[in-house]
Design a protein that fits this description.
Layout lengths: L1 E3 L2 E3 L8 H26 L14 E5 L4 H13 L3 E6 L6 H4 L9 E5 L7 H8 L2 E4 L6 H6 L1 H10 L2 H9 L3 E5 L27 E2 L17 H20 L3 E6 L2 E2 L19 H11 L3 E4 L5 E3 L1 E2 H13 L1 H4 L2 E5 L5 E3 H16 L8 E4 L1 H5 L10 E2 L2 H7 L7 H29 L1
Parallel strand pairs: 3-4, 3-6, 4-5, 6-7, 7-9, 8-17, 9-14, 10-13, 11-16
Antiparallel strand pairs: 1-2, 12-15
Helix pairs in contact: 2-10, 6-8, 9-15, 12-15
Length: 427
């Protein structure tokens, strides 16, 4: 049986065809060996953290066409010998990798698959050595307005992936979220409490910090609850059925290709995550909207740094299996208001535009997100486990990652935004 170009071909081989098939198999193996030799010459022999040579792997990446998936596919194609079965509904962000004639063209195949409805998914998982699940609805604006879709996407739709990995004895790297932590203990302390300065009340640890969510009517927590439940299920599969797994909790990964710009490469009526939302405002010359004063605190890590952490998980299973990893940069902490100020300064630098007279305005969460919104106060990751297990630490300071990201945003979208605004004014 074989999978090629997004289609599944199954059947039996007649006796008279056995010799021909064996010859074809030998030819394929020789071609694969030759291709591997070419890549090895270019990138060198890869060794893991324990000095062991890393053999080429076939990865089934679900959600490969998204922000994280596109950067991960780039890293795998450009710097490793591994191959990718790229699964997604859209492939726009990896089109540059799928173009024919590239040196890695034989190592990446794209399958346009909606994992909710396509029976080919298990076949792809069977063909792989490792499964990485990035698929999710993960935009805060959707948590209130589409809570059912959010829960189904992040729990129900992820269930078959976990089950296929368990039944077929495949290793799974599952992407969760830092939102599983919910609110910090410190957020419940009185505003003048000296305990608010104690790291024990706000730094988030994978194996110690409680997960605290708002009441059920605050549907904003539908995403976090679904993600936490699939984490618990994966952990249980590991404990009871020996599933080999790693869980990733990203803390605000930032970089080129993050999210969409409304009306340009996404629907006009949708609201993207904060970086794309602010970028859109900056390109349109509009004030950046600060929800509830922009007092929530976040940490930001550069996507290139984070992908290096993921690669270490891929190539060091003995160190990564059975672990949950925070992946963030605790040194890049800002309030959302400070983020808006930084983005304004950096965008003016990369675009040459003057600083706006009114850079920000305050709006309530009800105005911006509607009924049922709630938020966490701080998200600062403890990095002890990932530093110990994978010897990884982030490198890029927040100004540098923002300059790289906004340069991309301006170069990619500014002219299209201007045209869209001109067309709107003309109408």
């Amino acid at each position: 049986m074989a999978l090629r170009n997004g289609s599944y071909d199954g059947g039996f081989v007649a006796v008279g065809e056995e010799v021909e098939v064996e010859e074809e198999k030998e030819e394929e193996e020789e071609e694969e060996a030759a291709a591997a030799m070419v890549v090895t010459t270019r990138v060198g022999v890869r060794r893991n953290l324990d000095g062991e040579q890393v053999r080429p792997l076939k990865l089934c990446i679900i959600g490969a066409g998204g922000f994280i998936g596109s950067h991960l596919c780039e890293k795998l194609m450009w710097d490793t010998h591994h191959s990718v079965l790229a699964v997604d509904v859209y492939g726009d962000k990896i089109q540059h990798l799928l173009a024919p004639g590239k040196s890695w063209s034989d190592r990446i195949e794209f399958y346009k698959i909606n994992i909710k409805h396509d029976s080919r998914l298990e076949g792809l998982i069977k063909l792989s050595d490792l499964v990485i699940n990035l698929a999710a609805i993960c935009t805060p604006a959707d948590y209130n307005t589409r809570p059912l879709d959010t829960i189904y996407s992040n729990f129900i739709d992820a269930l078959p992936v976990v089950q296929y990995c368990r039944v077929n004895h495949k290793r799974l790297i599952h992407f969760s979220t830092c939102e599983v932590y919910g609110k910090t203990i410190g957020s419940f302390l009185p505003a003048d409490s000296p305990l608010k300065k104690d790291p024990a009340y706000y730094i988030l640890k994978e194996d110690e910090s409680p997960c605290i969510f708002g009441p059920i009517e605050k549907q904003r927590w539908s995403y976090a609850c679904a993600k936490q439940l699939i984490e618990r299920l994966i952990y249980a599969e590991g404990a009871e059925n020996d599933l080999e797994f790693t869980i990733v909790r990203p803390f605000n990964w930032i970089g080129p290709r993050m999210d969409f710009i409304p009306g340009i490469d996404g629907p006009s009526e949708s609201v993207p995550r904060v970086l794309a939302c602010f970028s859109n405002n900056l390109m349109r010359g509009e004030p950046l909207k600060l929800v509830d004063g922009g007092q929530s605190q976040r940490t930001f890590v550069y996507i290139k740094d984070a992908i290096e952490a993921v690669l270490r998980m891929i190539e060091n299973p003995a160190r990564a299996n059975g672990h949950i990893f925070n992946v963030g940069n605790p040194h890049n902490e800002l309030t959302v208001r400070e983020l808006a100020e930084l983005m304004t300064d950096v965008y003016c630098k990369v675009s040459g535009n003057p600083r706006p007279a009114v850079p920000t305005i305050d709006v309530t969460s009800m105005e911006f997100y509607g009924q049922g919104y709630d938020d966490s106060d701080k998200r600062i990751p403890d990095m002890t486990i990932i530093k110990k297990q994978l010897e990884w630490e982030p490198k890029t300071p927040v100004y540098d990652l923002m300059e790289s990201t906004l340069t991309y945003q301006h170069t990619t979208y500014a002219q299209a935004v201007k045209k869209a605004m001109s067309k709107t004014l003309a109408n």
